[in-house]
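Fold it.
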Amino acid sequence: QVQLVESGGGLVQAGGSLRLSCAASQTIYSINVMRWYRQAPGNQRELVAAITSGGSANYADSVKGRFTISRDNAKNTVYLQMNSLKPEDTGVYYCNVELSHAFLGVRGSWGQGTQVTVSS
C-alpha cells in the first residue's frame, strides 16, 4: 500500500504554532483524500482536517480559523499548519490517506502518529 511518515510534533506554549508533515511513500495507488486526526488521552480519535486531491479542505469546528491543511501532490505530502494553539489541542496527531486503484480498489493507510503538547 503506502507508508506514511509524520513529523513536526513537539511541545509548544499556548498561542504558539507548529507545522506537521506527513509524507507518503511511492505507491501504485492514487492518493485521494488526506486527513489529519488527533487523539487525546481518554478520548476517541477525532477528525481535525481533510483535503481532497483537488485541494478542497474542511475542518473540525474546534480548529477553524486556526489550522490550515495543505498538500503537495508532487511530493505525496500533506501538511497541517497549527496556529494559536490551545492546551485542548494536545494529543497524538495521525495522518490518514485514502487510496484508490482501478483494479485493486479503495483502501486506507495510517501514520504512526506524532505527539503535540500545548502547555498553558
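The first strand starts at residue 4 and ends at 7.
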